[in-house]
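ligand=4'-deoxy-4'-aminopyridoxal-5'-phosphate
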Amino acid sequence: MSRFLDGKRNGLDPYVPGEQPKGGILIKLNTNESPFPPSERAVKAAEEAARNLQLYSDPECSLIREKLAETYSVGPENVLVTNGSDEALNFAFMAYCSENSPAVFPDITYGFYPVFCRLHSVPYREIPLKDDFTIDPDEYLGSGSMVVIANPNAPTGVELPVKDIEKIIRGNPDNIVLVDEAYVDFGAESCVGLISRYDNLLVVGTFSKSRFLAGARLGFVIGDAGLIADLDRIRNSTNPYNVNSMTMACGAAMLEDADYTNECCRIIKENREYTASKLRELGFCMPDSKANFVFAAHPEISGAEIYGRLRENGILVRHFDKERIRNFNRITIGTMEQMKQLISTLERILER
Ligand code: PMP
């Protein structure tokens, strides 16, 4: 840190992204990326867009916004396009939270939410998940805060049924309820269908997980037109060209290749069920996951030791050194071959 950093920023505790290893790792299962590449059509679209990079990108994001609107059966005025969904979350915290407008979310959830709170001086409350890692919607009613729910939750993979989310939305009519659906396409139900009925609901999505474009940085928000206009004011007050032309073209092509993405997601779900059943045979406990990862703990070996032993064997998973979840590792679902290698390595580790 230099001596010039503003005092207000001294206390920041930034988000620590999962490691992007430079070498030595054979199987990377730590950041919930897809084992499948973007479609050929999407790569070509990005290549074509690269030919016009002397021009600024479209600040209205028209092409991708219209395609998203079509995909989710909403109007383009209900869609905002962002540079990854992290940017969408940041815009929402900037628009709806402040020193006097707090936020609330579960104690075990996406680690970026408290980081945004600290960045924007937003007081926040963390409501403990139940012991089985589920959310009790009654604990979120009348919160007087922006409610942020990842559904399915990360890093647990546990889904909160849409009827429970609707209860939370109804129970907070004067506050925003933001549902972060980064992993929804791996088997959970989306809340997008509720946006026409609730002017306090924001649904955040990403192309990083089920559309295989983590490196392109493409996210979006769907909500009431008034809310989207609020977020657009924030966008235009920070970075009006927030999404680059290659990413927009590539993302639009991925939306046209829904057969490809759906089939790959189907395989990931199949591999998840295989992995979960094999891990349970090995004695691991884990909640049912509706995401592209599982969250597993073994009763005999600590989470940190499993993380370390897998790493020595060239397999990288994610371990969070946080009290209630220290014994768990979050394991991204990869190809069947990768999952078989994971299981055989764990078999050896458990034999000791
Ligand atoms: N929400 C959740 C729950 C996540 O796990 C992630 C991925 N780290 C994000 C949002 C952000 O994803 P991206 O910025 O790549 O869209």
